[in-house]
Amino acid sequence: MPRLLIVTTVPATLSAFLLPFARHYRACGWRVDAMTRNETIDAETRTAFDHIWTLPWSRQPFSPVNLIGTPRRIRRIVEGEQYDIVHVHTAVAAFVTRYALRTVRRRTGVRVIYTAHGFNFDRGMPWHKNLAFLALEKCASAWMDYQVVINRTDEQAALRYRLAPPERVWYMPGIGVDLTRYCPDGVAETDVAALRQRLGIAPNEALFLMIAEFIPRKRHTDALRAFAQLGRQDAHLALAGDGPLLDPMRRLANDLGIAERTHFLGYRRDIPALLRAATALVLPSQQEGLPRSILEALALGVPVIGSDIRGVRDLLADGAGLLVPVGDVARLARAMRRLIDEKAAARAMAQRGLEQVKRYDLQRIIALHDQLYAAALSERHALTPTV
Questions:
Q1: Which residue, among 151, 286, 275, has the nearest Cα to 218 in the 3D structure?
Q2: Given the DSSP bridges, would you call strands 31-37 and 262-266 parallel, antiparallel or unpaired?
């Protein structure tokens, strides 16, 4: 029975993205455990895994706890449980775990796989940060066996900077979207109408939706300022999510005079209905890997306005959405106006998005993981531990 350990920095990554993989491999007879930060873990996530290890690591890469006590515990757990594959996700967990297992790989043959959900170095970031993050990735690349990337820009970067031999760089189009759940026919029109009614949005009014954590790189400020520039009394803006910038954005909406038509929705579990209620999804981020909210919008036949950055470019290629330069509030406002005024063009864009999203079907991504894990297990079984 193969043993798989999935590692993420925070439990939210497990619950948002990785439960289908845990369920799939457990159904195949594998033991599937997880390792994450010691925060609250919901019941659904706990039941998806055989066991969840929690560690007190920090989200700051160079925190002492990440480099002293935690690596020793990771080594003990991985050696004691005799995992065949350790699959790490997200930057901090990936660095700390690869560092912890740098000698264990040679002794036991455990295969270490890293999926980068968007490298921390990227065009548009300050040069000194790019230099530091690239140095960290190059250092940690010696402590793994396979590099998985989820957008073409990161694939090119992994090859250019030799983060792994070419044959060990695996491109996978994201972590998948469940097209059986996210599909236009999967949301009842009565649910959409009821949601709009609760928000106080008339059937003939436009609704722009942004789904994102309230943190600087998501650039909620741009969405609010563009909506203010739009100047349409027949339009609303809804912002779903939580985060440290929530209160400052509420104040900005008030200062811009758009508070009555701006809806701060908090954390939501009714994303499919929210998206189907929207005229368009807006995501003006300055940095992404392959944004899940855009995948879900495309799958539901909802037009998208996104910033012209890595990952987003992949998803909105060939006219599947509108791309605007990062920080260009005027262009963002014009894109919003276009989707209100040019309804036929918006419908055609949504149809192209439905075709585009088929490449990102969850079942296809799981099949690609099957291929990767088969290669890793074959390699693992060919190795003879030296202990």
A1: 286
A2: unpaired
The CA distance from 75 to 77, in Å, is 5
Do 23 and 151 lie in one domain? The reply is yes
Bridge partners for 295 per DSSP: none
Contact 171, 154 (CB under 8 A): no
pLDDT of res. 243: 95
340 within a domain of the structure (yes/no): yes
Q: Residue 48 carries which side chain, given as an amino acid letter?
A: A
Please list the rounded mean pLDDT of every run of 10 residues in the chain (387 residues). 96 94 98 95 96 86 75 95 96 92 92 94 78 87 96 94 95 93 92 95 96 96 98 96 97 97 95 96 95 96 97 94 97 98 96 95 97 94 60
Torsions phi, psi for 386 (to 5 deg): -90, 0
Decide if 297 contacts 316 (C-beta within 8 A). no
Q: What integer pLDDT is reported at residue 385 of this predicted model?
A: 52
Q: Is the CB of residue 110 less than 8 Å from the CB of residue 75?
A: no
Give strand pairing partners of 306: 283, 323
The values of phi and psi at residue 125, to 5°, are -85, 155
Helix segments in 49-126, DSSP class H:
64-67, 69-81, 91-100, 104-108
Closest by Cα among 281, 234, 218, 224 to 258: 224
Please name the residue that has the structure tokens 């959900």. Answer: 117
Look at residues 273, 203, 257 and name the one whose alpha carbon lies nearest to residue 225.
257
Pair of tokens at residue 372: 């990767």
C-alpha to C-alpha distance for 207 and 50, rounded to whole angstroms: 42
* Residues of the domain holding 269: 184-360
Which residues are paired to 86 by β-bridges? 5, 112
- Taking a C-beta distance cutoff of 8 angstroms, is the pair 66, 55 a contact? no
Q: Residues 169, 199: one domain?
A: no
- The pLDDT value recorded for residue 387 is 46
Question: Which CATH number fits the domain that encloses residue 282?
Answer: 3.40.50.2000
What length does the chain have?
387
Compute the distance between CA of residue 194 and CA of residue 198 in angstroms, rounded to an integer.
Answer: 6
Q: 165-199: string of b/e by CB count within 10 Å (b at 16+)?
A: eeebbbbbbbbbbebeebbeeebeeeebeebbeee
The residues facing 35 across adjacent strands are 7, 53
The letter for the amino acid at 104 is V
Q: Note whether 376 and 308 are same-domain residues.
A: no
